[in-house]
Design goal:
The chain is an alpha+beta fold. It has helices at about 5-20, 40-45, 125-130, 145-150, 160, 175-180, 195-220, and strands spanning about 25-30, 50-55, 60-65, 70-75, 80-85, 95-100, 105-110, 115-120, 255-260, 265. The protein folds into two domains: about 5-130, Alpha-Beta Barrel (N-terminal domain of MutM-like DNA repair proteins); about 145-265, Helicase, Ruva Protein, domain 3, CATH 1.10.8.50. The chain has seven helices and ten strands. Mean pLDDT is about 90; it is low at about 220-235. The chain binds a DNA duplex through loops.
Length: about 270
DNA sequence: AAACACCCCTGCGGGC
DNA sequence: TGCCCGCAGGGGTGTT
């Protein structure tokens, strides 16, 4: 369940090991992820090209190549990236293995195959690929004006709105729960009834929680070799997610669990309005 | 247009 | 003990 902070930590971990390296051989499981693995495009545009950058947009990782092609990786629910020595035996659910010119192998492992691997050919329009995505929550475009405009007269509950990647990118179920709790606003509140002041609180809480999670992950993942995507991330204390029936860390009231848009929702009825 | 339901997939844990 | 079922949730598509 990597969300934005986890993807960012993985990016920071693998970037130094990938930049200036070249993928010289690729193996895949033959099983499709959410999309089929584009073997032909990988061979044509990705292989034998020096890697120039490893970036992130929302929960997508972008591996940029010297020919201006890009490999776009999404981890879905259970996706992991790890660096291994080439002689280490592959694990179950390894779906793509990229051998580098230094003998290390980048492996994408995904039990449930909700992830995806895509290729942007050289000089294709990256902006177009991400056109439907809302702003980065840690970027300058995530503002009170923007959120209030997007909310408009919509009567969608706040939590569902925060999880809508077309509104703001990269916030999944776990952090949506934590954000509404930190902002002391009910996840069920309809967004047309949220004040400017409350939007400011939501934005501030979002940034704080995501940045804290990134910092916690960054401090716990020190060695990506053999890590295999070992979660270094959930060191961040989750205050409501997964804590149904436990006392609210602020007031002691039992945390409630409900379902919203088919997703587990945890909140404190006393603290969040 | 907005807000849903549904689907893809596997592993795990609870209940019986 | 073993089996069945519900649940976990990102993101795309389809429906009302």
């Amino acid at each position: 369940m990597p969300e934005l902070p986890e993807v960012e930590v993985i990016r920071q971990g693998i970037a130094p090991m990938l930049i200036a390296r070249t993928i010289i051989r690729v193996k895949s499981s033959g099983l499709a992820l959410r999309l089929p693995i584009p073997r032909t495009k990988i061979e044509r545009y990705i292989k034998d090209q020096p890697i120039t950058a490893v970036r992130r947009r929302a929960k997508y990782l972008l591996v940029n190549m010297a020919n201006n092609a890009a490999l776009i990786i999404h981890l879905g629910m259970t996706g992991r990236l790890g660096m291994f020595r080439a002689d280490q035996s592959p694990a179950p659910h390894d779906h793509l293995c990229c051998l580098l010119d230094n003998g290390l192998e980048l492996r994408f492992n995904d039990t449930r195959r909700f992830g995806s691997i895509q290729v942007l050919p050289p000089d294709s329009d990256e902006g177009h690929f991400f056109a439907a995505l809302g702003p980065e929550p840690l970027g300058d475009d995530f503002t009170v004006d923007y959120m209030q405009n997007r909310a408009g007269k919509r009567r969608q509950p706040l939590k569902n709105f925060l999880m809508n990647s077309h509104v703001v990118a990269g916030i999944g179920n776990i952090y949506a729960n934590e954000i509404t709790f930190a902002a002391s606003i009910s996840p069920t509140r309809t967004v047309n009834k949220i004040s400017r002041r409350e939007w400011q609180t939501i934005i501030t809480s979002t940034r704080e929680i995501l940045q804290k999670a990134i910092a916690a992950g960054g401090s716990t993942i020190s060695d990506f070799i053999n890590a295999g995507g070992k979660p270094g991330y959930f060191q961040l204390q989750l205050r409501v997610y997964g804590r149904a029936g436990e006392p609210c860390p602020i007031c002691g009231t039992a945390i409630e669990k409900t379902s919203m848009a088919g997703r587990a929702t945890f909140w404190c009825h006393h603290c969040q309005h």
